[in-house]
Amino acid sequence: MSNLFQVGKAYRNRAGEYVVQAIDGDQMTIRYQDGRTLVTSVPVQARIWENIQFERQIARDEERKQQALEARKAARERTAQVKKEQAQPTFAGFQENDFEPRARGVAWSSRRRLGLVLANELNQRTGGSFDHWIVPRRPKVHVARKEYYDLTATEANAVLFVTVNEKGVSYGYQVNKPAGQAQEDWPWFVLAAALADSEQVCETLHSALQAHNLHLDIHAMEATYGRVARVTPQDEGFLWQHEDAEQEVSRQMSGQDLAGYLRDLAPGKRCSLYVRKGLSPQAAVQAGADLAKEIAAVLEALVPLYDAGTSP
Fold first, then answer.
1. Could you tell me the CATH superfamily of domain 91-310?
2. Digits of tens for pLDDT over the chain (312 positions)?
3. CA dist 2 to 28, 31, 66, Å?
4. Residues in contact with 149: Cβ distance below 8 Å, sequence separation at least 6, in sequence order
5. How far apart are CA 31 and CA 296, in angstroms?
6. At the top level of CATH, which class does the domain 2-71 belong to?
């Protein structure tokens, strides 16, 4: 046992680190760092020293195992992230020929891809159940919650949308009122009721218009079908504006005023409300793939408004 220790060398026991001062048979004198000295048994201190070394070795082995475990976990997470990114749909951006006229309107070949990207992005951001639908024979894609999208009555749906024409790309929120006998469960009237009853819905609309520089346009069938009003945020309320060949009229509206206007607009006739943003073809092409993120941010800001019109 005495061979384990050498005079002048440092060791450790449960009381702390010490230096061996002298060894005499089975006894030795040790000196702690605080200056205390102790005559103690060489075999006892040997067992303590060996136990401490064993415990340190176990601790080092456990640490290496933990590091290896964390390294494998990090590698799996990196692999999973790569697979997730590879599996996620991508949108390369708009091309100039997306806005060129064709025999049946405007060609936009990547609309299905963008719809898939936007639905996936909204689901990640909101934990929702969004899907996308291509509008037949039109360069337009709808994004909506699956449980609220009625394929048998698409003209009555409320949707988030992206559409293109020769003037550019437009995206945002749309809700329609079909012609004919009104039904209170149509999203048009559900949204009007929400605007009348909830300050939060009005604030959502107000803040979305301001934060993303959106337009609220209302179209209706009068002599012909066209825009009958544009609504913009003003102070804590809204400014309603109507312009035709003969006059320009405007008036301030509260959320309840706007709700009443929507309920009473063109009874029995087709109407549409758009909260949207537009970009020229040049701006859309120049934005590249990043435009999908900008569109997703606008649609996300409009999700509460969409929900207000689809959850009676």
1. Protein of unknown function DUF1054 (3.30.930.20)
2. 557 899 999 999 999 999 999 999 999 999 999 999 999 999 999 999 999 999 999 999 999 999 999 988 988 887 776 566 555 778 999 999 999 887 566 778 899 999 999 999 999 999 889 999 999 888 999 999 999 998 888 788 999 999 999 999 999 999 999 999 989 999 999 999 999 999 999 999 999 999 999 999 999 987 788 999 999 999 999 999 998 767 789 999 999 999 999 999 999 999 999 999 999 999 999 999 999 999 999 999 999 999 999 976
3. 9, 17, 37
4. 131, 133, 142, 157, 159
5. 71
6. mainly beta
Spell out where the chain has E strands: 10-13, 16-24, 27-32, 37-41, 101-102, 105-106, 130-134, 140-145, 158-165, 168-177, 215-221, 225-234, 237-243, 248-253, 271-279
